[in-house]
Amino acid sequence: MCLPEPAFVAVVGHNGSGKTTLFRVLTGQLPYEGSARLLGQEVRDLRRAAAAGLLGYLPQRGSIGFSIAVRELVVMGRYRHHGLLSAYAPADYALADAALERVGVAHLAQRDFTELSGGEQQMVWLAQLSLQDAQVYLLDEPTQQARRVLPPPGIRARARLGHRAGQNRALQHPRLG
User: What pTM was estimated for this model as a whole?
Assistant: First the structure.
């Protein structure tokens, strides 16, 4: 599959048809035969595509096993712009606040992420993803848990998420409608 830039692509299919497997190949989580290229580079040759700013990925279910404030989790989307021990700047927090506002969960900024509903957590992950400034975003069933939080136009909101010139997004969803 070759796509022009920028592109918004929905990978649609029945359960078990390989949508998540495709995303796992593109993120380097699954070995494959043949060729799979991301921005002209063979996926198996890429080292840490996310760290290089090539790829941002939102899996079907993201979870963490410790308490953390929503705002602190979202600002971590800026990690690749900082060194290992550097602190986030006020500008990073302003970007995190704007991302939370864009996805409609700014009111949750001070809440403990682990106490949120599945839909609220998914929106927080989307806010964090938008701060990664990747060239390609892969969203694996981003509305799976968020259906209770977002009205159906939520898919359109995701299409706008992080939209900048030259960025591509692929949305995997079992059905759109």
Answer: 0.72
pLDDT tens digits, one per residue of 109-124: 999 999 999 889 989 9
Nearest to 172 by CA among 59, 85, 64, 65: 59
For strands 41-42 and 37-38, give the pairing: antiparallel
Q: Does a structural domain hold residue 40?
A: yes
- Structure tokens, 130: 């938008």
pLDDT reported for residue 40? 79
Residue type, 37: R
Q: For residue 157, what are the contacts with CB-CB under 8 A and spacing of at least 6? A: 102, 103, 104, 150
**3-state secondary structure at position 72:** helix
Residue 86 lies in a domain: yes
Count of structural domains within the chain:
1
Structural tokens at position 75:
């600002």
Q: What is the CATH number of the domain that holds 73?
A: 3.40.50.300
d(CA 177, CA 15): 16
Q: What is the arrangement of strands in the sheet containing 136-140, beginning at the earlier edge strand? A: 8-12, 168-173, 136-140, 55-58
pLDDT, position 31: 87
Tens of pLDDT, residues 126-150: 999 989 888 888 888 766 545 444 4
CB 134 within 8 A of CB 55: yes
- Which domain does 60 fall in, by range? 8-142+160-173
